[in-house]
Amino acid sequence: MMGKVLFIRQNSYSQPEIDVAITRAFSHFGMTFSRGERVLLKVNLVSGHDIKRRVTTDPAIVRSVAKFILNAGAIPFIADSPGIDSFKSAAQKAGFIDVANELGIECKELTDPVDLPAREGADFRRIQVSRYVLEADKVINLAKLKTHGQMYLTMGVKNLFGCIPGRLKAGWHYNVGLSREKFASLLLDIYLGVKPAFTILDGVIGMHGDGPTSGEPYEFGVIGTCVDALTMDFNLCKMLGGRLEDYPLYMAAKKRNLPQCNLNPSDVEGDIEPSHVFPGVKIPETRSMRLLPHIPFLEKLMTSKPVHIPELCIGCGRCANICAAGALRHENRRLYFDYGKCIRCYCCHEMCPVKAIKFKESGLVRLVNMIRR
Known about the structure:
There is one protein chain. By secondary structure, the chain is α/β, with parallel strands linked by helices. It has two domains: 5-270, Rossmann fold (3-Layer(aba) Sandwich), CATH 3.40.50; 296-372, Alpha-Beta Plaits (2-Layer Sandwich), CATH 3.30.70.20. Helix content is 31%, strand content 21%. The chain has 13 helices and 16 strands. The strands form four sheets. Strands 1, 2, 3, 4, 7, 8, 9, 10, 11 and 12 form a ten-stranded mixed beta sheet that branches. A two-stranded antiparallel ribbon has the order 5-6. Helix 1 (15-28) packs across helix 2 (59-71), helix 2 (59-71) runs parallel beside helix 4 (96-103) and helix 7 packs across helix 9. The longest helix is centred in the middle third of the chain and has 15 residues, at 180-194. It starts with a strand and ends with a helix.
């Protein structure tokens, strides 16, 4: 599944410009669609947010990809499964339903879990994804470029976690516990099992800081396109100023000796050099991954914990509802954390619509960061 990465410089969501960029990407890789085949457009719809927050895939990119596929005579449909929100409400806020209505295509929730066929070498033998994913003739992965509180970064590979329907995601967070490495291995199994035909990463305006939902917009000015999302994600980690050794997905791939871990500048083509580094990107450090050993009983001491900002809270209760560990109690706009139960998945932070949950660095992380500085 090796392949080149094409980075296209794109500084706005002007529809004509996006159309040109998408056509260029498909042409570069010789991507074609057959008449009548059903093509699932897997967007990033983590939860319902206004488009200007830059949490979700921009509708201009979804529209352009869908039009290209329609013009080829194929049948695209937009799909995802948000973690907690009503699908219809979230898809409306993200602009996906408007695109679907405009083009006369479906916008559907990924439901009806079925077993993903296990691959040789997979760490997880039974993963359930939506049957719509397996029934589609092709999956086009339309991801968003963002930082991520738990997994360092969320780009092409991480976007496919949304193929797991609804609340089953929270169960996986609980099952892998505190281990980012296990969660990264799960992401690899999903990605290698779903095998998207193509990945397009919306980095025109992405997010940095407390991503994937509570960070700040960042104008990367790029659309990433590829057949192999692992190669793209690993190259982008370096371009964002991150360290591959801190990126759980890379470390999980390295443990499996995947060839994509051997980065080669010749894998990157297009408008942005592989040596380029985007300035001032803030990647959350909720755990010191470089200097401290991965000893299970030390994990919670090594990992930042979520804390409540009561003056920002609107009392919606989404945080407590999403907590798979049952570590949250919500009363009168006050959150009470049971840190003994908390698995540091940060789903509460991810689902908060008003940024009322932040990270508090552990003492060990602060000490390590002081040493590093």
